[in-house]
Amino acid sequence: MIQRFVIGKPFPTESVVLDLPAETGPVPYLTPDGDGWQYVMQEKDIVYGLGEMPRGLNKRGWHYETNNTDESEHGENRLSYYAAHNFLLISPADGSGCTGIFVDFPGKVSYDIGYTRHDTLRFATAEPNYALYLITAPTAAEVAKEFRQLIGPSYIPPKWAFGLAQSRFGYKTEADIREVAAQYKANGLPLDMICMDIDYMQSYADFTIDKARFPDLGKLAADLKAEGIRLVPIIDAGIRCDDNDPVCREGLEKGYFCTKEDGTPFVAAVWPGRAYFTDFLRPEARAWFGRQYKVLTDLGIEGFWNDMNEPALFYSPERLKAFFENAAALSRKDNLDQNDFFGLVRSVMSLMNAPEDYRSFYHDTAAGRVRHDRVHNLYGGCMTRAAGEAFQTLRPGQRTLLYCRSSIIGAHRWGGIWLGDNHSSWSQLLANIQMMPAVQMCGFLYSGADLCGFSEDTTPDLALRWLEFGLFTPLMRNHADAESRDQEFYRFTDVLPAIRNMLDLRYALLPYLYSEFMKAALEDAPYFRPLAFDYPADPDAREVDDQLLLGEGLMVAPVHTQNAHGRTVYLPEAMKMLRLRSVSDYDEEVLPAGRHYLPCELDEVLLFIRPGHTVPVAQPAANTAQLNDTALTFWRFAPDGQPAPYRMYTDDGVPTDHNKPEHWRIVGQ
Q: Gene3D superfamilies in the record, alphabetically (predicted)?
């Protein structure tokens, strides 16, 4: 059951697709608490949700803010990251039924989930105008499915987007891109995408190409595609202030940029320097911005990643001027005391993404003129929508790859996400594992983290262990900062054979992984989920937060600790364990229900098949175009000896006609 309650006058976010009548009675389960609501939790209740947030599967014990933030310092002490995923799922330990809570609000929402009081969940919006949805069902899995039906179908990328993507902030020339492709091929490593960061642009300006560095981007894209590799360029949110740039001129002439209170265009600096920001909350501005992608789709580009769309602001000219004036006054002092010095340091850092700047510009919407901070969390999702809607015209009938950094529930219908600028640490590998079910619960099925970590220096063992989990995530991208060590997979010569085997394993498992993704997208089924979703009466399964169920028939248990030669795994029921060193080299053992310590060397990955299930396996391939999903072998666990057929989805991964019955076939009978 889904109930909708209207508080005040909500801003229309378009996050949901079901038109439900507003309830007139009291809100069940929740108690009014000042400007928000509270829910009293039992000792062993679990609170899932919030999508892209720090901490584990169970969100109890911390406080959070959904306030989309360019947050590069990922860690347990953070309150928010790049996304606003205002969905909570409360799973009581006594089996009395589960409750989902969705706060449909475009501004900041604060959550205290057992932080102040261990037994109290409290949430409040920045202003009292929102829609509140309550979903009740006997199990967490049913609540999650009802929520997915409420918010609408998830974005489906092309099939080649399930191959490996190699990316780096620092591929500065065509020669750099060609070298990456050549090295992957020379080292026998599969590859489907090379992502281009802002260095391909002219002075970091959107929808431009630096002809000195990339003299013929169309030929580069065509040459790589002939080898089975797609180019995937980045697009940022800010449009460079440049009277000679036709995109900038047209945006100004037609009034498509956000404005200050006096009606003049708002300006802040990002990568190209001073920039304007498209008013993505306006349909006509979205359509205009989306049309600009044509300069790249005309060159044969079939995929994009949108970045900096919280929007990230390095500084505003007004606040930068005030900072310099203050610094100049301090520079005349012979000696700075600690208050002056640390105040200066704080003022430098506070230039970025300043709340004052977000309060200084406005959007023109159908609901009237609204200050940005009141609808801040919509911005990135509306940029995603601008691109997603445009591709329906620019590339009709064809799927286009699109994944983005900032998001809000609803944007999952237009694109996927990556989990932002993480860093190379074992704690971030664990965070990746724990975050995947939460973001997918909120509809973002095509998702994944930067493998090996974006910033700081990875290590060969971390790169390999991260790949051993990342090979199961829909988006599998190795991405690094310009200042970090080179971390393309061919760089790690001492573990290169194991890396090759793990990448081959990803491609061999694509018949299963792609089928399970399509089931999740077309049938509101789960892709990743906690063990407790399928074993709600098992108290031990409820405690597990570093093992995940994957589709119908698999469980993954990644090793996420440095120097570990194994790990403890909990099995809610008997399962068949595969200790995989490659597609063709593995140990196989049926293990009973219970807790097991299982050896797992650095070049091995643990995979578990549930009873009565079959996994189709292909031969490895150099890219998805070469994958043969008709010549299959099968990994199976049928303890009762009965057939365990598998329902597999097969298509060429390009058209948007996903629902044809002929895409489905039964294999492994």
A: 2.60.40.4040, Glycosidases, glycosyl hydrolase (family 31)
* 3-class state of residue 53 by DSSP: coil
> Is the separation of the CB atoms in 139 and 483 below 8 Å?
no
Residue 128's φ and ψ, nearest 5 degrees, are -85, 55
Buried residues in 589-603 as b, exposed as e (16+ CB within 10 A): eeeeeeebebebeeb
H, E, C per residue of 395-414: CCCECCEEEECCEECCHHHC
The alpha-carbon radius of gyration of the chain (Å, integer) is 25
- Give the CA distances from residue 534 to residues 142, 162, 542, 610, 660, in Å, rounded to whole numbers and listed in that order: 10, 26, 10, 11, 29
**Whether 221 contacts 297, CB under 8 Å:** no
Average confidence (pLDDT) over 485-509: 98
From CA 163, how far away is CA 503, in angstroms rounded?
A: 9
State the Cα–Cα distance between residues 514 and 157, nearest whole angstrom. Answer: 11
pTM of this structure: 0.97
What is the rounded (10 degree) CA torsion for 122, 124, 128, 129? -100
**Tokens 């995530």 correspond to what residue?**
473
What are 647's strand-pairing partners?
Answer: 666
**Structural tokens at position 610:** 């549930």
pLDDT in tens, 457-495: 999 999 999 999 999 999 999 999 999 999 999 999 999
Q: 3-state DSSP call for residue 495?
A: helix
The CA angle 136-139-140, to the nearest 5 degrees, is 85
The predicted pLDDT at position 104 comes to: 98
Q: Categorize the per-residue pLDDT at 78 as very low, low, confident or very high, splitting at 50, 70 and 90.
A: very high
